[in-house]
Amino acid sequence: KLHQFYSHHLCTPSRGSLLTGKLPIQIGLQHDEVIQPMSPWGLNLEYKLLPETLQELGYETHIVGKWHLGHYMFDFFPTKRGFDSFFGFVTDQEHYYNHTYSFKIMEKRWSDLVSSDPDDFTVVQGREGELSTIIYRDKVRDLIEAHDVDSPFFLYYATQNVHGPLDEIRDMTLFTDAQSKAIQAIQNPERKVFAKLLGALDHAVSDLVKTLKVNGMWDSSVLLLSSDNGGCQYGGGYNNPLRGGKHFLFEGGIRVPAFISSPMLPTSVMGTTYTGLFHISDVYPTIMGMLQQNLPEDIDGISQWDALLRKTSVYPRTELMHNIDYWAIPTTSTTLQMMTHPRAAYREGDMKLILHHWALGWYAPPINTPSSEGEKLSGRSSISRPDNEGIEDCADPPKDHAALDFLFNISADPHETRNLVNLTEYADTVQRMRARVMEEAKRMVIASWIAEDESSVDTWMMTGFVVPWMVMPGGSQL
C-alpha cells in the first residue's frame, strides 16, 4: 500500500504526469481546465511518453479505457505516441451504457468509443446497452490471451469507473455476496450507485489478475493501481476525513488510494505500507528502476524502486511541487490571462504550503437520508436521470470565500484542520517555502489551454462520434 501517493487535482494533468514523468507545470497542464470534447489542444507532441520508451525496450504496449490527453488531431492519439493499440474513449467522461458524452454539445449527444492502431482509427458502433466496464474487461482479456508470454507486455488500463455520470449497474452478478450485501445496506441512493460502480471496478481488476494467471503471465507481472484525482462530492465521491476534493489542492483532491502488487516482490514487503512521499510522476522512473534502465535526464519524477524493496532506509522524495497555476479565464474572454498571485501548493517534508486558495471544507455523505451533500450543494442529484444529462462538476469554488494562504503539518494534521500560516514561529518556514514556489514558477512552461473549437462538430456530424477534426501540416491524414 502506498500511504502517501499523490496524483493531481484533475484527470488531464495526472495522466500527463504519469506518462511523461514530469510535473504539470513542465508540460503545460497546470491550469484548472481539462481537455473538453471540442478542445483543440493536448499534451504537447515534443514530450516522449513512457510507452515510447518501453517500445524501444521491446515491449508490446496497449491502452484500454480513457485517454484524455488530446484528440483534435490523430497525431495526439495514443497509438501515435507509443501505444500499439487503443480501445476506449478520448474525452473526460461519458455514459457507461450508451457511450455518449455526458452533456449535450450543440443540442446533440455525441458518441465516444474508438479503436486505433498507429495507422488509423475507427469508431466502435453497435455496443449501446453494454456496460463499458465489461467491454473493457473483455478487450483486456483478448490482449492478454493473444500475447506471446515470452515477450514483454505493458498495459495502461485506464478504467472509466468511478467517474461520473453515476449510471446504475444493472448486473448484480458482477458482485460477490459480501459486496451485494454491503451495497444493499447503503441507504443513500447516490452512494449506493457509486458503490456499484466501485464494485464493478473491483470485478474488472480481479478479472485482470485472473486472466494473467490463466495465461501464465502473473508470476512475472507488476500491478500498480491508483486514482487520478480525489473524489467529487457532486458525483458520489467523498474524501472525508481528508479536506476538499477534486479540482482543489487540499489533501482530499490530490492524495489518492494506490498500491503495488506483484509475486516478484520480496515476501518481506508484501502486505506492508510504504509511507514515503510518492508522486504520480514517479511511476515512469520507478518502472525504469525496476527494469534497471537509465532514467531520462529531463524528468521530474524519482525512482522509488529501491526504497519500495527496502534496499535503502531513506525515502527518495523529500519535496513535491503539487501545482502552480498563474492563469485565469475572464468571463468576457476566451484567452488565458496571468494572475498576480498563483494558486499553488508545495510540500516540503512534513509541511505543506497552499497559496491563494479557497477555504474548502470537509465533505462527508449522510448515512440515512435520500440526499447527499453533493445534492444539497448543487441543487441536483448526480445520479443519471431519464433525460440522460451529465452531473454537476466540482470546479466552482465556495461562494463568498476569499482566496487565502495555508500552512499545515501533514504528518501531525493530515486532515488540514489547523492553519499555521500566520503563526510567528512558522514565519521562516512560510518564507522559505514561498520562495521555493516562486523559484519553480520561473522555469514552468505556459499553460496549453485553448478555447473550444465549435468547428469540430462539422466533422463529428459524419459519424455522430467525437473524432479528430484537424490535420497537422505534413502529419497524419484522416
Automatic annotation (TrEMBL):
InterPro entries: Alkaline_phosphatase_core_sf, ARSB, Sulfatase_CS, Sulfatase_N
Entry's Gene Ontology molecular function annotations: metal ion binding; sulfuric ester hydrolase activity
Keyword Glycoprotein annotated: yes
Keyword annotations from UniProtKB, A to Z: Calcium, Glycoprotein, Hydrolase, Metal-binding
Highest rank taxon of the organism: Eukaryota
Residue stretches making up the Sulfatase N-terminal domain: 3-291
Pfam families attached to this UniProt entry: Sulfatase
Record-stated family: Belongs to the sulfatase family.
Protein name according to UniProt: Sulfatase N-terminal domain-containing protein
Protein source organism: Octactis speculum
